[in-house]
Amino acid sequence: MNSHSADRKITIQLEINKERYERDILASDILLDVLRDKIGLTGAKPGCLNGDCGACTVIMNKQPMKSCLMLAIEAIDSEILTIEGLKNTPIQRAFVEHFAFQCGYCTSGFIMICQALLLNDRNPSPEKIETWLSSNICRCTGYKEIEKAIYSVIELLNIKNQTNQ
Ligand code: FES
Ligand code: FES
């Protein structure tokens, strides 16, 4: 894409948290900015803006994506889930119950990465949990509380699984 086409205004539709949004954007707009500035979903946070911290994580077609590294136009035709779509879910409640945050800036990104892991694997190994969590950075807490939160949801999922058998 040359700079001329990147500056072009286009109208796109995005499906976010099961709702459709139509917005005029620049072809060069990153998904994070469109979510926050054009749609008003401010749960995904700008941190490093280069893919290291994970504060901007969203889930797209069940995969975690760093929304600072994507153009919004790349998200057309995808199912996007943001932290606003996880209100009152087990993983969101688990972070509260286990005090898995301090300043909270990284929290939405961590909840999203945990949810993405559980969507891909209901019973991940400790090594896998460690690997997935290593894609996000928290500058305040140890990671122990975050691990406790995800383990509590894994336990919940497995209890549900057993009762459904
Ligand atoms: S803001 Fe996207 S990874 Fe840090
Ligand atoms: S709780 Fe402050 S950066 Fe993680």
Distance between the termini: 52 Å
According to DSSP, the number of beta strands is: 5
Strand-pairing-aware structural class: alpha+beta
Largest sheet, spatial ordering of strands: 2-1-5-3-4
- Per DSSP, what share of the residues sits in E-state strands of 2 or more residues? 15-25%
Q: Please report the number of helical segments.
A: 6
Mean pLDDT: 94
Bound molecules: FE2/S2 (inorganic) cluster
**Multimeric organization:** single chain
Overall helicity: 25-40%
Order of helices and strands: HEEHEEEHHHH
Radius of gyration: 17 Å
Major sheet, described briefly? 5 strands, mixed
Uncertain runs:
none
Label the overall shape.
globular
Short recap of the structure:
This protein has 6 helices and 5 strands. The protein is an alpha+beta fold.
Secondary-structure topology with pairs:
Blueprint: H1 3-6, E1 9-16, E2 19-26, H2 31-38, E3 57-60, E4 63-66, E5 79-81, H3 90-97, H4 107-120, H5 126-133, H6 144-164
Parallel strand pairs: 1-5
Antiparallel strand pairs: 1-2, 3-4, 3-5
Helix pairs in contact: 3-6
This protein binds FE2/S2 (inorganic) cluster (FES) (2 copies).
One FE2/S2 (inorganic) cluster binds at residues 101-106, 138-141.
Describe the protein's architecture and organization.
This protein is α+β, with helices and mostly antiparallel strands and 165 residues long. The protein contains 6 helices and 5 strands; from the N terminus they run αββαβββαααα. It has helices at residues 3-6, 31-38, 90-97, 107-120, 126-133, 144-164, and strands at 9-16, 19-26, 57-60, 63-66, 79-81. A 5-stranded mixed β-sheet has the order 2-1-5-3-4, with helices on both faces. Strand 1 and strand 2 form a beta hairpin. Helix 3 packs across helix 6. The chain starts with a helix and ends with a helix. The mean pLDDT is 94. One FE2/S2 (inorganic) cluster binds at residues 46-49, 51-56, 66, 68.
